[in-house]
Amino acid sequence: MALRLDSALCWVVLVQLLGLQILAEPLKEAPVSLSVVSDVSNEAPQLYHTSALPRGSLLGALKRLQDANSDFKFTGTEDPDYGFYLESVNGVAGSESDHTYWQILTDVHGSPTPIDVGVGCYTPKPYEHIILKLTTW
């Protein structure tokens, strides 16, 4: 009986140590590219590069980009029910009177599609291309 108890305790200690080792490893950031485009103006698209943490949100990647690159700025508001709402990118805001807003798309294999959740919930994949597009409704 004592041998079984010792074996069980060894397994518990080993599992705990392995778990701590996994938690101690640094998270590896994945590269993400981001384009800012407009359907409303004739401005050339702007391309940026940032990174996202594993299981991290697009909002985190946007904040990381804004902190690292003074040419990229964004603003938004936090809704308690629906999360972060993107309002402006690089000084250009969406407008109710002009019927414009910032659409967020993912470009997988050259086929841009709108993301189905907000920037606070969307998790970019490594090497994914995100498009912030000023467009009309």
Automatic annotation (TrEMBL):
| Region forming the signal peptide | 1-24
**One example of a Gene Ontology biological process annotation:** cobalamin transport
Q: Which UniProt keywords apply?
A: Signal
The terms describing its cellular component in GO are:
extracellular space
Query: Is Ion transport among this UniProt entry's keywords?
Result: no
Gene Ontology molecular function terms on file: cobalamin binding
Q: Which superkingdom does the taxonomy of this entry point to?
A: Eukaryota
Asked if the Swiss-Prot or TrEMBL record annotates the protein with the keyword Signal, the reply is yes
What PANTHER family does the annotation carry?
Answer: TRANSCOBALAMIN II, TRANSCOBALAMIN-1/GASTRIC INTRINSIC FACTOR
Descriptive protein name: DUF4430 domain-containing protein
Species the sequence originates in? Alosa alosa (allis shad)
Q: What is the lineage of its organism?
A: Eukaryota, Metazoa, Chordata, Craniata, Vertebrata
